[in-house]
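Onboarding guide, step 5: your first structure request.
Type a short instruction followed by the sequence, for example:

Predict the 3D structure of this protein.
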Amino acid sequence: MAANFGAKSTTEDVLAGVDLKGKRILVTGVSAGLGVETARALVAHGADVVGAARDLEKAKRATSEVSKTAAETGANFELLELDLASLKSVRAAADKLVADGRLFDVIIANAGVMATPLGKTEDSFETQFGTNHLGHFVFVNRIEKLIRDGGRLVNLSSSGHRFSDVNLNDPNFETTPYEPFVAYGRSKTANILFAIEFDRRHRDRGVRATAVHPGGIATELARYMPDGAIEAWVQQIQEQRTAAGEPPFEFKSVPEGAATSVWAGVVASADEVGGKYCEDCEVAELLPAESQVSTISRGVRGYALDPENAKALWKKSEEMVGEIFA
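The system replies with C-alpha cells like these:
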C-alpha cells in the first residue's frame, strides 16, 4: 500500500527507501530555497542532477552541500547557466543540453519570481509572466525530446493562481492597471495550464506533466515585497481563515515545501498526477466556481485546469516568443 503523505511531510519522508540511482533530473532555480533542497534530496538518493540558475556564482555557493552530498552518494551534480528573463539565455541553455544529448527522466521547473514591481524582461514581456511562464515554456519545449519516454515534467505553481486567470488579450499589462499579485496570479495559472497542455501533447509516449503548489514558505521569493508586507498579508490570511472556520495558516519549512515537487516527480504514479495540480503531496480538489476562499486555502480553480484555456495559452505563448512547438 502506498504511503500517505501530507502538508508536514518532508523530502526525506517522501523519498524514504527510494533509490534514484540511474535517474537524471533537471531542476531550475537552484540558487536558493526550494531548488536547492530539491536538488539535495534527489542527489542524496542517488539521482544525477543538473541544476539551472541565472547566477552561477550564487548557485555554486548555495549548492555547496548538494555537491558534497552527491560526492558521498556517487551521484553527479552539475550547474547550467539559465536566465529565464532572457530568451537568448534560455535558447543557449537549451542548445547546450541538446548538443550534449543525454536524456532526463524528470524536469522540475522550479525557478520563479513573485510580486515584482512593474517591469519587463529582456524581450519586453511583463516580468512575472515572462520569467515564470514564457522562459520555462521555451526552455522545456526546446529540450522536450530529451525527456525520456515515460518521463515527467513538474511545474512549480502556487495557490497564488487564485489571484487571477491568464489574460491573453493583455499579457503585458499594456492596457490593464498593474498589480503585482494579479501579475503573479496570471503567471502561476499559466504554469498550471502549460502543464495541462504539455501533458496532453506528450502522454502518448508516456511523458506526463503536472503542476504543484509547494505551500507557504519563507524563502527569497518574497524579496520584492516591501518591509512588513509579508506580516500584513499573513494577518489578512489568518482573518480570512478564521472567518471561514479554517485552521490557522502555518509556514512550511523548506524540506516540507520541496516535498510535493519530489513526490510528484519521482514517487507518485504518472496516471495519478498527470494533467493535475497537486498540493501537500496529493492531487488537489477542484474548487466550486462560486467559492470564496483565502489564497492559502487548499484547492484549485477551474480556469487553471480548463483544457481549452490551456490550448489558447499555448498558442498565445508561441505567438509571443516567435516559435512553434509540436
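Each response can be followed by summary notes, for example: The longest helix spans residues 180-202.
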